[in-house]
Amino acid sequence: MSDIIDSVPKPMDAQQLAAELVDKARAEGIDLVGPRGLLTGLTKTVLETALEAEMTEHLGYDKHDPAGRTGGNSRNGTRIKTVLTEVGPVELDVPRDRDGSFEPVIVRKRQRRLNGVDQIVLSLTARGLTTGEIAAHFDEVYGAKVSKDTISRITDKVLEEMTEWQNRPLDKVYPVLFIDAIMVKVRDGQVTNRPVYVAIGVTVNGERDILGLWAGDGGEGAKFWLSVLTEIKNRGVQDVCIAVCDGLKGLPESITTAWPLATVQACIIHLIRNTFRYASRRDWDALSKDLRPVYTAATEAAAAARFDEFADTWGGQYPAIVKLWRATWTEFVPFLDYDVEIRRIICSTNAIESLNARYRRAVRARGHFPTEQAALKCLYLATRALDPTGRGRARWAIRWKPALNAFAITFEGRIVPSTTN
Fold first, then answer.
1. Please, what is the angle between helix 38-59 and helix 14-27, to 10°?
2. pLDDT > 60? residue 105
3. What residues have CB less than 8 Å from 78, skipping those under 6 apart?
4. How many CB atoms are located within 10 Å of the residue 2 CB?
5. Residues linked to residue 212 through DSSP beta bridges, in sequence order
6. Do 207 and 175 touch, CB atoms closer than 8 A?
7. Beta pairing partners, 81
8. Close Cβ partners of 124 (under 8 Å, ≥ 6 residues apart)
9. Beta strand pairing status for 239-245 and 263-266?
10. Enclosing H/E stretch for 354
11. DSSP states of 112-168 as a string?
12. Torsion of CA 79, 83, 88, 89, to 10 degrees
């Protein structure tokens, strides 16, 4: 392998070099990946070159330089060390010095895997794979043995990071706050369904900001929600214009306690989906068509008239649907007072559904979790994967400026856009 690398003429740009190496490897029947593959050889060469450069900087002279014979500290051969990399195990010749003061940075003493391997483990965990499945993945793909305990220690490193994320300072104002839930299975004696709540804010710059994750037991009331919202408030959120939720017990009262000026809005998307739960699938299209005039009405009076027509048509067949809408009507009608641009933001599902899709995929792949903390860790890793900064931010809407203008007029004096946007 080293013969192939050494035979490539220099200088050469990166693309030419890669093409030349691949051609020579294929000509000699060498695989690109695997224990004796081209990538393994390249990784070995790059790491050993970097280690030699570190040793040169440490000693102050190049390898084979006569200056090293004048006494003092000097090179003292190499020692063999195997490290796990993104291309599999790589055996390195690590340089040594006589007095043992050399502290390499690129591959530290006692380090057995490169940081990229940790990122692979975290990425696979975020997708819901168990420690056993990840260990099998490394064995199958890289030919490397990684214990379940090692994988657990790697993922446990994010617990401190997750705590910092959960307690980070937040923006002063969020035009819209969504509170949603994802169900996870936790084994506590027996496997039970537990809700994990996620709060998602829309910033004044039109970004989705995932504020945090909270585990619940399904019996939450005003006390639970007030503690969650007080935590959010203590992290810097002074005002929320519209809080969108799904009729969770005690939540509307807790919202107005935390932010007296906030308007509690029933989630239209959830309301429509809950409607379909009571109906046969063959009626979904007709129900959707008849409901649309209700939630797109220009005024509350018009919406009430359209809903009476809906109730006359479907009430006999699906009385639970009529009861559902009437019970939620007080939280639904504020939606009708908003500008069409604000309505679009409240009804926009892309930013929420992309998040929920990742959460559900990770949870389904895992099946169930041994503890609540394991479930939260998995969901945090899925959140972390959405944004390289680890903040879980993303653009909410392309047409944000018209919505921002509508918010600024509707909630005059409460919305102050960032000057950096």
1. 130
2. yes
3. 93, 94, 95, 96
4. 10
5. 199
6. no
7. 92
8. 133, 134, 137
9. parallel
10. helix 350-366
11. -B-HHHHHHHHHHHHTT--HHHHHHHHHHHH-----HHHHHHHHHTHHHHHHHHHTS
12. 40
Distance CA 117, CA 113 (A): 7
- The predicted pLDDT at position 142 comes to 59
Give the start-to-end residue ranges of the domains of the chain. Answer: 2-111, 113-156, 169-410
Distance between first and last Cα of the chain: 52
Q: What is the DSSP letter of 89?
A: E
Instruction: Give the range among 13-17, 270-274, 297-301 with minimum mean pLDDT.
Output: 13-17
The CA-atom distances, in angstroms, between 236 and each of 14, 20, 174, 202, 205 are 48, 56, 11, 15, 17
Helix (H) or strand (E) holding 22: helix 14-27
Of 10-24, 85-99, 155-169, 219-233, which gets the smallest average pLDDT?
10-24
Rounded distance between C-alpha atoms, residue 149 and residue 169, angstroms: 34
Strand partners, 75: 97
How far is 89 from 40, CA to CA, in rounded Å?
8
- Go through the chain and tell me how many residues it has: 421
The pLDDT value recorded for residue 17 is 47
| Helices and strands in the chain, H and E counts | 17, 8
Phi, psi (rounded to 5 degrees) for 222: -60, -35
pLDDT at 304: 94
Whether the per-residue pLDDT at 148 is higher than 50: the answer is: yes
Characterize the bridge pairing of strands 393-395 and 75-85.
unpaired
Beta bridge partners of 84: 89, 113
The 10s digit of each residue's pLDDT in 357-389 is 888 888 887 788 888 888 888 888 888 877 655
Interacting residues of 313 by C-beta distance below 8 A, sequence separation 6+: 290
| 212 touches 199 (CB < 8 A) | yes
- ∠ Cα 26 30 34 (to 5°): 130
Look up the pTM and report it: 0.67
